[in-house]
């Protein structure tokens, strides 16, 4: 049985999903460094396909994993590469940056080199280092599912770790989103909290007003009497292709959506009236 752990500092910056993945990547980078394996361009790497990640983390969807990895990379905690031998193999390779080490372990880093073949100057067993494994935790395998899919499926999440989310103080737009949800939809579970956080992070990258856009989606759900996050997610997904940047943009989208809906309704009503007229007076399209 596996237990997944994470750095609180990384969770505060990037969300729990990203923090769990970061711990996995960090462990295997250090493991490969100790064994002198997977060294490219002066750095040690680990690799996993998306299928492997979804197997290793069955409680996360593919989209959640993609968003979490993108968040880690955009925030500079990890770096990605491609060192596959076969040209058609698109399995991604990952390494931890100096910034990633600094944030996760909260200890002094030797920054004389930007390569990750240097280690923190602190003792990883020191209580001051935040990124630690529980003594009974078994490391998550470093795999490519095209090569090895023999993974223990009996994976659980330590609920004490998940509850850390309640201890994290949120500020700014995300806090407004979660507060609006709790005021109008109900209490947040740990899983739903993290799902909303990943959605917020996604919209923070794609728009200028993520909080306002997400709250607008929740307001639409309330208007439709659909008090559930699934409906809100569908509203947000419907907007993605149009790439709205501000609240004004999504309001314009909704206005256009309403106009198109009214046109379809009017056309349907006209069609029904014509059908009734033809039935009454015997007129048909072929006549």
Brief overview, please?
The chain has 287 residues and is mostly helical. Helices cover 52% and strands 8% of the residues. The strands form three sheets. It has a three-stranded antiparallel β-sheet with strand order 4-6-5. It has a two-stranded parallel ribbon with strand order 1-7. A two-stranded antiparallel ribbon has the order 2-3.
Folded structure, characterized:
The structure is a single chain. The protein is mainly alpha-helical. Helix 2 crosses helix 4, helix 4 packs across helix 8 and helix 7 runs parallel beside helix 9. The C terminus is likely disordered.
Which descriptors would you attach to this protein?
three-stranded antiparallel β-sheet; two-stranded parallel ribbon; Arc Repressor Mutant, subunit A; 287 residues; mainly alpha; 11 helices
